[in-house]
Protein: alcohol dehydrogenase
Amino acid sequence: MATNGTNGVQLPATQKAAQFNPKDQTVSINEIPIPSIKPHEILVKVKSASLCHSDLMLFESNEQGLTLGEGEPFTMGHEACGTILQLGSQVPTFQSGDSIGFLPIIDCCYDCPGCQIHNLNCETGSPKVQGMTVDGYFQEYVAIHWRNAAKIPSGMDLTTLAPMFCAGCTAFNSVTDTVAELEGVEPAETWVAVVGCGGLGHLGVQYLKAYECKVVGIDLSPDALEEAKAQGADFVFNPQVDGDYVAKIKAITGGRGCHAAINYTNSVPAYSSIPALLRTNGVLMVTGIPQRPLQFNAMEISMNRIRVRGSNNGITPRLVKCLEFSHKHGIKPHLTRFKLEQFQEMLDLMHSGKHKGRLGVVFD
Ligand SMILES: [Zn+2]
Ligand SMILES: [Zn+2]
Structure:
């Protein structure tokens, strides 16, 4: 054991980390040093860290302008929570022992107009994503920027809460953005299709039900549909099994179609199928990010005056709201637990799509 940093906390010298090697696109469990914190940073002892679909982008080429994983191996993961071990000298507000979750963008200014929407849009810094280009959260001790941290309301279970910090806040933001876009429509009269009922979608269903919307879950996976039902979806459809699902959705929505659809999938065909589910002037909330550009029938978008909008995991002030709302409404991620040593097994399961909710590592 060695003493590291400002608070005299006893820490081991090294730790295990699930690291991605950009040279051969493999993952291995490596022994790495415990990070030393800078004045604006917090050292966190991670309780849970979970896999996000975006993590799979490391293993595939993309046309989204993202440069992922260059150079030396780095620790994967951008979705985690834990407790504060040490505070840098310039960190206000937080205290040692606080439970926090955090967002992963660093080297941004947090204050410019771009940073008010998403810190990747910073107009003055050169933002990086922890877990995508620099060390992320599949390691027990992580250093994070204090501006990325949000206190977790007491009573929330840290062992299953990791997904809240990407999937949860993304689902929350996409739902609140959709509800805002539909201003003037009674939530209880509002039909929203959740396209993709996995990691993001199972939370999206919960947030929509908290707003008392009527929810139609759509997925190709029977497991994901079962989860959507369990979380309160009013109807669920598997387009591969039910060739008539578009007509059925029209019928249950009074012949008009849904007011909105939120797409959480990374599938271009799933996006292309959405305008047919929407009523005139409906909202298509773009949330999941396919590796390739989207394709739509312009006639459908134009004639029906479909509103195509974007939503994302957002910034820390929205994360704080997400936590308050989730705590108030008892919204919880479904996390299947793995050990760090089972990382490859967890990754393979994520790739297969044969899982419910989120997959993650819980540290003892
Ligand atoms: Zn993510
Ligand atoms: Zn900025």
About this structure: Residues 52, 54, 78-79, 166 surround zinc ion (ligand 1) (CB under 6 Å). The chain has two domains: 2-166+314-362, 169-310.
